[in-house]
Amino acid sequence: MPVEYTERGMLKYTKKLIERFKNPKNVGEIENPTVVATEGDPTCGDMFKMFLKIENGRIEDVKFLSFGCAANIATGDMTADLIKGKTVEEAGKLQIKEIADGLGGLPAIKMHCATLAYRTLKKALTKYKQKQAGGAQARPKG
Amino acid sequence: MRAYLDNGATTPVAKEVVETMLPYFTERFGHPTFLYSLGQEAADAVDQSQKTIARTINAKSGEILFTSSATEANDIALRGVVYANRKRGNHIITTKIENPSILRTCERLEGEGFKIDYLPVDGEGFVDVSKLKEKLNDKTILVSVANVNDEIGTIEPVEEIGKLLRDQKEKIYFHVNAAAGYARVPFDVEQIGADLVSLSAHKIHGPKGVGALYIREGTPVEPVSYGYISLFKLKPGTENIPGIVGLAKAAELAFDGFERHTNHMKKLRDKLISGFERVPYSVINGPRGDKRSPANASCSFKGLEGESMLMHLDLNGISVATGSACSTTKLEPSHVLTAIGVKPEVAHGTIRFTLSRYNTEEEIDYTLEVVPRVVEQLRKISPVKPEEL
What we know:
By secondary structure, chain A is an alpha+beta fold. Chain A has helices spanning 15-22, 70-83, 88-92, 96-102, 111-141; strands at residues 35-41, 46-55, 58-67. In chain A, helix 2 crosses helix 4 (96-102), helix 2 packs across helix 5 (111-141) and helix 4 packs across helix 5. By secondary structure, chain B is α/β, with parallel strands linked by helices.
């Protein structure tokens, strides 16, 4: 690159992202969720809390709370849309790229937002599986 | 309604300034080093502009160098002075809360073997002059402190610092980055004892791409860039005549109504600050009253993140900066907020509102209507509870 452009110079959001940020459909909490997962840290400036309602192995509802930038809110909302109605197994196959693509792309320095949403989802699904396994083990013992 | 409240980043150019500049593009376009009348007209314009700027800070006109920005002025001041004085010493003192344009040059100088002390500040951003005194040694050649902090508006005790430095046996040069303070707080180079002062045009309703450096007569400064010399040895290249004329006109306008403008800004600033204080879990950063720049209001809203706030305010027509205006992409809390002891999780929710003489009371009322609404909206969707921070 003959002239290096700064990351700041490349910080632009897509219309899709701004629209999601303005009107996120999936923010909030779920009462009696099947599983809740939190990732990130407010000291780093971004944090997600994801609530999943799972019935018969299918994600019936997703809500999230966000402390973070516009990309944080938009990626959370996108992730929720991408997994809603899917089975736990299908949701487990979600890729970070799909989240970014769903928003028409993310600036390079905001990719960590998609990663954080992805990690929160992974954590929630792992917790769910542990719960299931724990439940399955508990039953014969009980 | 729209409200531009990021005048600390840049300002709209005053119409009078544009009008003054225009003939220098098309009619009075001459090169200032040539003898024909067009050239002399350009040279005169530079002379006149030097005089105008000098008047605003009580300097002599020959002490004003025009640069392309305050950033460049800072770089020439810092590197120029320490290179010219390196036989005498290698120690520089500055503060932890300087603008990146100072800190980046300092980093480079450290790499070249200069020793730099970064003074801490108190909870309101004030430099402790006694701490500065403790750091002085026989190798100290330069002290650089901004008179107004660009993020939190703290007015530093530059006069006291200048006095301390003048009382030393060996000459210690004193640089003041006045980019955020120029035309906001009074500045007199004699009273302060400053040897170098950096100024910017685009922060006072002048054009972008122009700054100035005051260099006290007799201050040794080595050039830091080389090439074709036009009028000034320290700033090679043909002068930006329309820009220089624009800076001078902007300064003239700002200083002609200095009291009126600053009183107006103070009134709006205090209205903003008392409005923010009514928002639950909010913290004002920096001092109150006379020790604060008339143009600055900085507030941390706990439990939310600044960029989302910035975007929502923008959707409502209000332009602001996050607390760390200069590190938007670094994803780290601002070095200034960190230095005054703001916890990172709180620093992330900081918004800087900066005023100009063109802002109106209606704009402030509107802002104070929108801000609490946006804060509430973002807190509602946040997993972080403001009361726990």
